[in-house]
Design a protein that fits this description.
alpha+beta; Antithrombin, Chain I, domain 2; elongated; 2 domains; 392 residues; 7 helices; 4-stranded antiparallel sheet
């Protein structure tokens, strides 16, 4: 499985920027949004193309190839299921070059019946996420011409499970959290990084299917965006991590204490971990963060912005993500479905043409003639048209 390092950095950079504007407890998937933005950037024009390319972090002419590479890489990852879906009205003509870059099986049809189409999209979301996401997060209307969606689901079991136990916490003093504990001799599973906003403690929890979860604890006063952003920067190698076996005695990082302990027999150093289980979900209206996702211009419905997708003027009318995640004693699972709905824009009225409408809806005459000689072969005056068959 290969995904270019530049693509990984671009996706992660979007995650860090998203984290910086996220409010309160939430969960989101930049990997679910990024390939859709990249495909839209490839088909966009004008200011919308520049904004989407900036959000993607790659030149627009490289975005589609990177999106396909990312989706291919996801498909090869153990424990990960991913899918791309495209639905269009039958009357919407797609540019062949753009459509050819998508999997043939990804293309479905919008009937124009909102109820029927919503049921179809919901079934796709549920199937592609193993039932974790039951509804497609898109605001369908009769004007919706195109829906572009991604689904991402992952599951893993821990290499070593936790034990469940009641947990005492001053912060959650109004409840008794479900605590998870375990002991290990692998001290390098934990470490501390010195970041511009403060020290961050990182704990790596390894899964059997090569999917890991990193738990990050920042200093008191650090925001969620600062801690999550630091975690991304740690992955990118921008902040070195001092591993647990090299930490000094005392309190070297948030939530950490290193101390000596007496024992009756020789024992190796140990790492005792206590955390909490969590089960959370969120729904994000991406257009509320239109600048972050490069959708400021693309949402303007007075004109089209995607000439590389279709000659019909299209604008983004809906962009949402539903996501869920659960961290438990035995493993972790998460799923995200992201969808963009494009409605027809107002055509560009720079040109003039003539439209002639003819309606024969009252008595009229006719002439039947020979073309070359102009000989009239029959003539008539129609006052009683034939009735439409009742059985039809």
């Amino acid at each position: 499985m290969r995904v270019a390092r530049g693509t990984v950095r671009a996706v992660n950079a979007l995650a860090a920027r998203w984290a910086g504007v996220a409010d309160g407890g939430t969960v989101f998937s930049a990997a679910g949004v990024w390939p859709l933005l990249a495909l839209l950037a490839d088909g966009a024009g004008g200011a919308a193309r520049a904004e989407l390319a900036d959000a993607v972090g790659l030149p627009a002419d490289q975005a589609a190839a990177a999106a396909r590479e990312l989706l291919g890489g996801l498909a090869e990852m153990r424990g990960v299921d991913s899918a791309l879906g495209l639905w269009t009205k039958r009357t919407l003509e797609l540019r062949e070059a753009w459509a050819a870059g998508l999997p043939a099986e990804a293309h479905g049809v919008l009937t124009g019946d909102v109820g029927v189409d919503q049921a179809t999209l919901d079934a796709w979301a549920a199937k592609r996420t193993g039932g974790l996401i039951e509804r497609m997060p898109v605001a369908l209307t009769e004007a919706t011409e195109l829906v572009l969606a991604s689904a991402l689901a992952l599951r893993t079991e821990w290499l070593r499970p936790f034990e469940e136990t009641p947990m005492e916490s001053l912060y959650w003093s109004d409840r008794v959290p479900l605590g998870l504990t375990r002991t290990s001799v692998l001290l390098d599973r934990v470490g501390v990084a010195d970041t511009p906003h403060g020290h961050v403690t990182r704990l790596k929890v390894l899964g059997k299917s090569a999917i890991d979860v990193h738990l990050l604890l920042g200093e008191e006063g650090m925001t969620s965006g600062q801690v999550l952003g630091a975690g991304v920067e740690i992955l990118d190698g921008r902040h070195p991590v001092v591993p647990g076996d090299r930490l000094p005695y005392g309190d070297p990082g948030p939530g950490l204490r290193v101390a000596k302990r007496r024992c009756m027999t020789p024992e190796p150093p140990t790492l005792d971990v206590t955390t909490v289980a969590y089960d959370m979900s969120a729904r994000h209206e991406l257009l509320r963060l239109h600048r972050l996702f490069g959708l400021t211009t693309a949402r303007d419905a007075t004109r089209g912005h995607f000439p590389g997708i279709s000659p019909f003027p299209l604008a983004i009318g809906s962009a949402e993500q539903s996501v869920t995640a659960r961290f438990g004693a035995r493993g972790f699972h998460a799923a995200a479905v992201t969808a963009f709905g494009a409605a027809g824009g107002v055509p560009d009225l720079r040109y003039l043409t003539t439209v002639v409408t003819a309606r024969f809806d009252r008595p009229f005459a006719f002439l039947a003639l020979h073309r070359h000689t102009r000989l009239v072969l029959a003539a008539g005056w129609v006052t009683e048209p034939e009735s439409y068959p009742e059985e039809d």
